[in-house]
Amino acid sequence: MTHTLRLPLIAGIVAITTLVAACGETRQSSSDASRDSAAAPAGARAVDVAMEDIKFDQTTLTVKTGETIDFRFTNTGQIPHDAFIGDAAAQMEHDDEMAHMGDASTHSMGEAAVTVQPGAAGQLSYTFTEPGTYEVGCHQPGHYGAGMKIEVTVE
Ligand SMILES: [Cu+2]
């Protein structure tokens, strides 16, 4: 009668620290001075997006086919976040890459990405040339799975 005691292996626990859950939301409008350094492409629509732990401050965006969006990210969280633009399939693929290879920058054409450190700002211009549904996803480990994405409808 062998009696094997096994401690359950709790694997894959994503330690999501809910640092921002508190109500002390401080707005620092003057902290993003770097924003002015990069000029927006002519005719682009600027969209300001705050990166929080762990979500973007908006979940949907509608653009017109052919429209160029000048995403201006500000990381208001405590950890790095990134923004990767592509369709859902590309998101899954990229998430897989990031999970296995870390910061793999094997982006195919039509995809764009930027990583923004805490307290910093980042910019990403993207022209949505075809109608459909795209996503802006954060692929720091666990973030996309936790829902850190913006669904972009191109109409
Ligand atoms: Cu993130």
Describe the overall structure.
The longest helix is centred in the middle third of the chain and has 14 residues, at 88-101. This protein is mainly β and 155 residues long. It has one helix spanning 88-101; strands at residues 45-52, 55-56, 60-63, 68-75, 81-86, 112-116, 121-127, 132-137, 149-154. It is built from 1 helix and 9 strands. The chain has a single domain, classed as Sandwich (Immunoglobulin-like). Bound molecules: copper (II) ion. Copper (II) ion (CU) is lined by residues 54, 81, 138, 140, 143, 148. Copper (II) ion binds next to loops.
Question: Any key phrases for this structure?
Answer:
binds copper (II) ion; 155 residues; Immunoglobulin-like; 5-stranded mixed β-sheet; mainly beta
- For the record, give the distance between the C-alpha atoms at the N and C termini, rounded to a whole number: 67 Å
Shape: globular
Number of helices: 1
In the CATH hierarchy, the architecture is Sandwich
CATH class: Mainly Beta
Radius of gyration based on Cα positions: 18 Å
Structural class: mainly beta
Q: What share of residues is helical?
A: under 10%
Low-pLDDT residue spans:
1-37
For CATH, the homologous superfamily is named as Cupredoxins -  blue copper proteins
Element-by-element helix/strand order = EEEEEHEEEE
State which percent range the strand residues make up: 25-35%
Main sheet attributes: strand count, strand direction, barrel closure? 5 strands, mixed
Average pLDDT figure: 78
Q: How many runs of DSSP E, i.e. beta strands?
A: 9
| CATH fold name | Immunoglobulin-like
